[in-house]
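Lab notebook, page 48
Experiment: co-folding of the full assembly
Goal: obtain a model of how the components sit together before planning crosslinking
Operator: M.T.
Materials (sequences as entered):
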Amino acid sequence: MTDLKTIERLETRLTHLIESQLTRKKDQIDFLLGLNRIDDLLVDHERGRGVTSDVAGFLAEYRSRLRSETMTAAQRRRLGDFLSELFQRLRDSRDGDSAKLADEIKEWISSLGEGGFRLILKKPQEQAPLADRFQACLRWETEEMVALAAMHDHLLSCLDDVLKSAEVKVDPMYRHLAASMIYFLQMEGYKVDPYLKRLRRIQTET
Amino acid sequence: MAMITGEEKAYCRGLTALKEKNYAAADKEFDVCGAAYGKSGGFQIMAVATKLLARLQQEKTMILKTAHAIEEAVSHGKETVVCRQGEQEETR
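Observation: model returned without errors.
Model output:
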C-alpha cells in the first residue's frame, strides 16, 4: 500500500496546483469559455438549430461573470465583436423571445464601454492630420500589444491571435498590427512565410 | 463560420474537463492544442500536471484492482498469481 499512499499524496498536491492555477486565472478562463459558448451558439444557429433557450442559458450564466471591470480593453473589444454577431443573428430571427434576448445583448454590449458595439452608425467626422492618425494607430497598437503579451508568452502566439482577429474583424488596424509584427519577426530572423500568406489571404478577402 | 480556432476550442474543452476533474479528458485536449499554447509557461505547467495526474489515476486504479483481485483469490481459498492488465492471470 506504500505505492498507493505515495500516489495519493502526489495526486493531492498536483490537484492543489491545478486548482490554484484555475483560481488565479479565473477571469481569463471565464472569458475564454464565454467566447467559446458564443461561438458554439453561432455555429448552431448557422446550422439551423434553435438557439433561443441556449442563448438565454448563456446570458444567465455569463452576464454577471464577464464584467467590464474584470476585462482588458482587448478582451472587451473581442467580446463586443462576438456579442455583436450574436445580436445580429437574433435580431434577424424576428420572433418575440429572440428580440428580448437581442435587447439584453445590446445592453450588455453597451455596458462594455467605448468601442464595444459595432453596429452603431457614427456621424462623419473631420479627418485628423495623417501624422496624428498614425500616432493614434501606434498608441492603439501598443495598448493591444500589452493585452496580448499578458495572454501569450511569445510574439508568434500574439501574431497568431492578431491574425485571427484580422480574419473576423473589419477594423484594418489588426491587419496593420499583423504586418508590423511580421516585419519585425522577419528582421529578427524568423520564418514568416506562413503568416505572410495568411495576411495576404485576409487582405484579399476583406 | 466559427469565430475561434480548433486549438482554442480544444483549450476550452480541456479547461472545462479540468474544472470537472476529468484529467484524462483534459490531457487529450491539451495534446491537441499544445502546438498553439505550448510556449506559454502557465500552459506547460498545467498540461504537465494534468498528464501526470491522469497517469497517476490510471496507476491508482490498477493498484486497487490488483489488491481487489488478491482479496478475491484469498477468499476463494486459491493461490492466485495476480498479474497486471494485459498479462494472463495464472491460478494454481
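Interpretation: The beta strands of chain B are 80-81, 90-91.
Next step: discuss with group before ordering constructs.
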